[in-house]
Amino acid sequence: MPPKKQVEIKLMPIGNVPKLKKAKIFKLRRTDPFLVVQQGVTKVFSKHLKKGQVFTFSLQASFTPSPDETLGNLTECFGQNNTSLEVGYSLTPNYG
Q: Domain 6-90 carries which CATH code?
Protein backbone atom coordinates (compact mmCIF):
# COMPACT_ATOMS: atom_id res chain seq x y z
CA MET A 1 0.00 0.00 0.00
CA PRO A 2 1.52 3.38 -0.98
CA PRO A 3 2.10 5.94 1.77
CA LYS A 4 -0.50 8.61 2.41
CA LYS A 5 0.00 11.91 0.61
CA GLN A 6 0.07 13.80 3.90
CA VAL A 7 2.18 13.62 7.04
CA GLU A 8 0.84 14.35 10.51
CA ILE A 9 3.16 16.72 12.38
CA LYS A 10 2.94 16.68 16.18
CA LEU A 11 4.77 19.57 17.85
CA MET A 12 6.56 18.77 21.11
CA PRO A 13 7.66 21.74 23.25
CA ILE A 14 11.03 21.24 24.94
CA GLY A 15 12.04 23.27 27.96
CA ASN A 16 10.59 26.65 28.79
CA VAL A 17 8.97 27.56 25.48
CA PRO A 18 5.46 28.67 24.50
CA LYS A 19 3.05 25.77 24.14
CA LEU A 20 -0.05 25.39 22.03
CA LYS A 21 -3.22 25.73 24.09
CA LYS A 22 -4.49 22.45 22.66
CA ALA A 23 -2.39 19.57 21.46
CA LYS A 24 -2.75 19.87 17.74
CA ILE A 25 -1.63 17.76 14.87
CA PHE A 26 -0.89 19.56 11.63
CA LYS A 27 -1.23 17.79 8.30
CA LEU A 28 1.24 18.74 5.60
CA ARG A 29 2.14 17.28 2.22
CA ARG A 30 4.90 14.66 2.08
CA THR A 31 6.58 16.79 -0.60
CA ASP A 32 6.76 19.88 1.64
CA PRO A 33 10.24 20.78 2.91
CA PHE A 34 10.96 20.85 6.65
CA LEU A 35 11.24 24.64 6.26
CA VAL A 36 7.41 24.78 6.16
CA VAL A 37 7.30 23.41 9.73
CA GLN A 38 10.00 25.83 10.92
CA GLN A 39 8.24 28.84 9.40
CA GLY A 40 4.84 27.76 10.70
CA VAL A 41 5.98 27.39 14.31
CA THR A 42 7.86 30.68 14.20
CA LYS A 43 4.80 32.47 12.79
CA VAL A 44 2.42 30.99 15.40
CA PHE A 45 4.65 32.02 18.30
CA SER A 46 6.18 35.22 16.85
CA LYS A 47 4.50 37.49 19.40
CA HIS A 48 6.06 35.44 22.24
CA LEU A 49 9.62 35.72 20.95
CA LYS A 50 12.03 38.41 22.06
CA LYS A 51 14.07 40.20 19.43
CA GLY A 52 16.78 37.89 18.15
CA GLN A 53 15.25 34.70 19.59
CA VAL A 54 14.82 31.79 17.21
CA PHE A 55 13.55 28.26 17.66
CA THR A 56 15.73 25.18 17.43
CA PHE A 57 13.97 22.14 15.96
CA SER A 58 14.81 18.49 16.41
CA LEU A 59 13.66 15.00 15.57
CA GLN A 60 14.00 12.34 18.25
CA ALA A 61 15.76 14.98 20.38
CA SER A 62 18.94 14.22 18.48
CA PHE A 63 19.33 16.32 15.33
CA THR A 64 17.94 19.18 13.29
CA PRO A 65 16.89 18.27 9.76
CA SER A 66 17.99 20.37 6.83
CA PRO A 67 15.31 22.93 5.89
CA ASP A 68 15.12 21.49 2.36
CA GLU A 69 14.61 17.85 3.46
CA THR A 70 11.12 16.63 2.53
CA LEU A 71 8.68 15.63 5.23
CA GLY A 72 8.09 12.36 3.39
CA ASN A 73 11.75 11.35 3.63
CA LEU A 74 11.95 12.37 7.29
CA THR A 75 8.79 10.43 8.11
CA GLU A 76 10.07 7.30 6.37
CA CYS A 77 13.30 7.41 8.40
CA PHE A 78 12.18 8.84 11.74
CA GLY A 79 8.40 8.85 11.82
CA GLN A 80 5.84 6.58 13.36
CA ASN A 81 4.15 4.07 11.06
CA ASN A 82 5.36 6.13 8.08
CA THR A 83 2.47 8.54 8.70
CA SER A 84 3.43 10.93 11.52
CA LEU A 85 6.44 12.86 12.71
CA GLU A 86 7.14 14.31 16.16
CA VAL A 87 9.01 17.59 15.96
CA GLY A 88 10.54 19.10 19.08
CA TYR A 89 11.00 22.85 19.32
CA SER A 90 13.02 24.84 21.83
CA LEU A 91 14.72 28.18 22.29
CA THR A 92 18.04 26.48 23.07
CA PRO A 93 19.77 23.51 21.42
CA ASN A 94 18.21 20.40 22.91
CA TYR A 95 20.50 17.58 21.88
CA GLY A 96 23.99 16.57 22.78
A: 3.10.20.90
